[in-house]
Design a protein that fits this description.
Rossmann fold, 5-stranded parallel beta sheet, single chain, 5-stranded mixed beta sheet, alpha/beta, 13% strand, 567 residues
């Protein structure tokens, strides 16, 4: 471990780990100058801009910077911007401290049902109403607005009140300050994502459509609107109530250097803290994201890495979970499981990506949306493309994300009720205990209840491939790849230095007559397993491993519903 030290006898600045208060950080911590976000917004003159980036990439920090710049306050914040990029031109400086600002974050508005979620949403809105109480209590404020304000403050708002709360607040501020407010909505999709995986997605989508459009539809009471989130869900109609909102995603060149750290910024930070030679280690662990055409480092992980004495480890793993990603990854098709296994080998693969992440109900069944979800949430990166057809090359960004995949995604399966069975099953497989493997597989299918009752061979193949992913540290796992004289269903070759046998799995699902006896079913499964085992030898699936001196376990598997036979 490298310890932080003083640089030429001078005390090093503190690092803003976990601190999203931009003004506080700017006044007393190390930070990168990201005020080009302000100049870009002012230059483009878009009324509503939407930024989608992975979690922990500085979205809230950027929004607090916008608040500090635009908000009209008793004590000027101008001193915080002197020397930054936004302070270089007079026309930018003239915008500082000029407007009322609405800032609402929905990052914590997640509860198990819509009623409780609405209560959290109402609490976030109420806080902002309290912050701007003067606009409602001032002489000249219409009685209807004052009455609305009182209902919000005493928690007696109706659902319609909540839907229109942003518009009412914006209008009140415009009237009081004689300037249209800047509206900042942080993590707008956090409750939407949570609702989508807990059965009340439609209610959340409808609310946010009404809430956002109430203030930003025509710009009458909005000087500038900025919205951040992880995903773009335009197809759901959430943003359809806004006039020509401009979305800047991970695929866009504009604002690509405004979230996360660029290489230049990382080199500057490492030099400031006395260890510029750590750039290769930092790059290996935390670089690799590409926003538009810009290479980006994970800022959360870099700050923790330096603050922790330059100790490389997956800091992103300990941040808040993404329920939508977890839910989707548990339902990967056999083909997509195969692609993810290839990506884990530090390979690249092609995928068709979509700029929109909706409708949510189809995510599990739409490969295009699935890959886009993993790119938008930061689990995968785009190395080239997408082209005019939406085709891009994807890969894991860096060593950290490979560890996150291993320790988080694979661990999800182990934490499920059947997790102990999965461990028993994979241990039995790699040890060559065929009967224990068969029994563990049947036990796993049994606890999975009716979900697998009517599973066909391709689904069973995907299930088994997913289970084998728990052994990915020890094996190179291939699915339906050419080997010998055919394509084995699953082939597992031990990694260099691993003294385990190779494994070949071939699957057969016999047709079972409608009223077949248990004895008849058993006979058909046994015959199918023997046929699968014979195919392994006839097609020489294990020939390459055997030629290299690797002992090979060969399993023919016959299955139907929750019953399994091995040969």
């Amino acid at each position: 471990m490298v310890k932080k030290n003083t640089q030429n006898g001078a005390k090093l600045p503190s690092l803003p780990v976990g601190n999203s208060n931009w003004a506080e950080v700017k006044a007393g911590y190390w930070s990168a100058d990201k005020t080009q976000l302000i100049t870009g917004l002012l230059d483009k003159k878009s009324m509503v801009a939407i930024f989608t980036r992975p979690r922990r990439f500085g979205k809230t920090f950027a929004m607090r910077m916008l608040q500090s710049f635009f908000e009209k306050t008793e004590k000027s914040n101008a001193c915080l911007f002197k020397g930054t990029k936004v302070w270089q031109k007079r026309e930018y400086r003239a915008e500082q401290g000029k407007y009322p600002v609405i800032f609402i974050t929905f990052k914590d508005a997640k509860r198990e049902d819509w009623r409780l979620t609405r209560m959290k949403i109402a609490a976030a809105i109420r806080d902002e109403y309290d912050r701007h109480a003067t606009a409602f209590t001032a002489r000249g404020c219409p009685e209807t607005a004052k009455s609305f304000y009182r209902r919000i403050c005493v928690k007696q708002e109706t659902p319609d009140d909540l839907d229109g709360a942003l518009g009412v607040l914006a209008a009140a501020l415009h009237s009081y300050h004689k300037e249209r407010p800047v509206i900042l909505i942080d993590e707008y999709d956090s409750p939407i994502n949570y609702a989508a995986t807990h059965g009340f997605g439609e209610e959340a989508l409808q609310f946010f459509h009404n809430f956002l459009s109430g203030a930003m539809k025509d710009g009458e009471h909005c000087r500038l609107g900025v919205i951040t989130g992880i995903l773009r869900v335009a197809k759901e109609g959430v943003l359809s109530g806004l006039n020509n909102p401009k979305v800047y995603s991970v695929f866009d060149d504009a604002f690509s250097d405004c979230f996360g750290f660029t290489e230049e910024e990382v080199r500057g930070m490492l030099a400031t803290f006395g260890h510029p030679e750590k750039i290769d280690e930092a790059k290996d662990w935390y670089d690799g994201y590409r926003f538009g055409g810009c290479e980006i480092y994970n800022p959360w992980s870099l700050l923790n890495y330096v603050d922790d004495g330059f100790t490389p480890k997956p800091y992103w793993l300990s941040t808040s979970s993404n329920d939508l990603v977890g839910d989707v990854l548990s339902r990967l098709s056999p083909e997509m499981r195969d692609t993810v296994a290839n990506l884990f080998e530090k390979k690249e693969d092609e995928a068709t990506l979509s700029p929109d992440l909706g409708p949510y109900g189809l995510i599990q069944d739409n490969e295009e949306i699935l890959w886009s979800l993993l790119v938008h949430t930061g689990y995968l990166k785009v190395t080239s493309g997408p082209d005019s057809n939406g085709t891009a090359t994807i890969a894991f960004p860096n060593r950290e994300l490979r560890r996150v995949f291993r320790d988080d995604i694979l661990a999800r399966m182990k934490r499920q009720p059947s997790g102990q069975l999965v461990g028993r099953l994979t241990r039995a497989l790699s040890s060559g205990d065929s009967e224990r493997f068969r029994k563990s597989l049947e036990d796993f299918l049994s606890v999975s209840a009716s979900y697998f009752d009517t599973a066909k061979e391709d689904f069973f193949h995907g299930l088994l491939l997913g289970l084998m992913a728990a052994l990915i540290e020890s094996y190179e796992i291939r699915s339906n790849r050419e080997e010998g004289d055919g394509r084995p269903d699953i082939l597992m070759r031990p990694r260099p230095g691993i003294t385990l046998p190779g494994v070949v799995l071939e699957l057969k699902s016999p047709k079972i007559p409608a009223r077949a006896s248990q004895k008849r079913i058993g006979a058909l499964l046994t015959a199918a397993a023997k046929q699968a085992r014979k195919q392994i030898d006839e097609k020489r699936y294990a020939a390459e491993m055997e030629a290299d001196g690797v002992p090979v376990l060969k399993y023919g598997i016959g299955f139907s519903g929750k019953r399994v036979s091995l040969a």
